[in-house]
Amino acid sequence: MSFDVEEFVHYQIANAAVRTYPYPHFYIQPVFPEAYYQRLLETMPDTEALTPINEFGTVGRIDKKTGELQKSPFEPRYLAELSVLQAEEDASFGSGTWRSLSSWLLGDRFRDLIVGKFMAGIRARFGAEARLVTSVEARFVRDMTDYSIKPHTDTPKKLVSLLFYLPPDDALQALGTSVYVPKDPAMRCDGRQRHPFEQFNKVMTAGFLPNSLFGFLKTDQAFHGVEVIKQPRIERNLLLYNIYLEKVVTPAPLAA
Fold first, then answer.
1. Worst-scoring range by mean pLDDT, 47-51, 79-83, 250-254?
2. Structurally, how many domains does the chain consist of?
């Protein structure tokens, strides 16, 4: 009997230990059943089907005069919505691996699992009585040679990030996302800027290993980044899942 993919992933995440320093995070391997993971690798999209991040419409600065998003300079990172992967797989393989993944990954049950996983940190940030209104997204990401991202804590709207690593073997182990602690212990950041590597000490790297998952809670201390990928002809494939905060509802105080 084969594993049910959703239940396997749910089991692995629900039973993973959350480390709380310097911010809540966990690392899992494996996260998918092995046979299913191999199907994901077999149905990877070509780079031509992906969009450079500076053309994706999610990065850049807002022009204060026009209110329009200005494109950032080119970075060797390419993205695609899961619907693109579904269409590519339908056309090239005639199978439904990415479609079946989307059917539960973007659903309420999985979101509730992840929120519950970080509930202690969420309550510490927003209060025990706060009710959160959230949204989710999942995107395929391909980073290439010369990609890097300096230590940052993510946009203020971010609640949780999951990075499903999708390499074929362990050759790129050192290219995982790293956790950083600022040399200035008082340093905090709301996520609107990136900081020089020299201002931080690296405390761990989530190994970029097959069938692994790195997840963390957004806080003003959740500094993470990726150092420059120097090896030639690199493809660093991952599935990025984010939970965004749309609204925080706090109960009104009881009348005296």
1. 250-254
2. 1
Q: What is the pLDDT of residue 71?
A: 47
Distance CA 157, CA 30 (A): 29
Q: What is the dihedral of CA 69, 73, 74, 78, to 10 degrees?
A: -40
- C-alpha triplet 151, 140, 90: angle, nearest 5°: 175
Specify the DSSP element, H or E, that contains 26.
strand 25-28
Token pair of 242 as six digits: 């984010």
pLDDT tens digit sequence for 61-71: 444 565 444 44
Which CATH number fits the domain that encloses residue 145? 2.60.120.620
* Domain containing residue 212: 5-55+75-249
φ, ψ at 165 (rounded to 5°): -80, 135
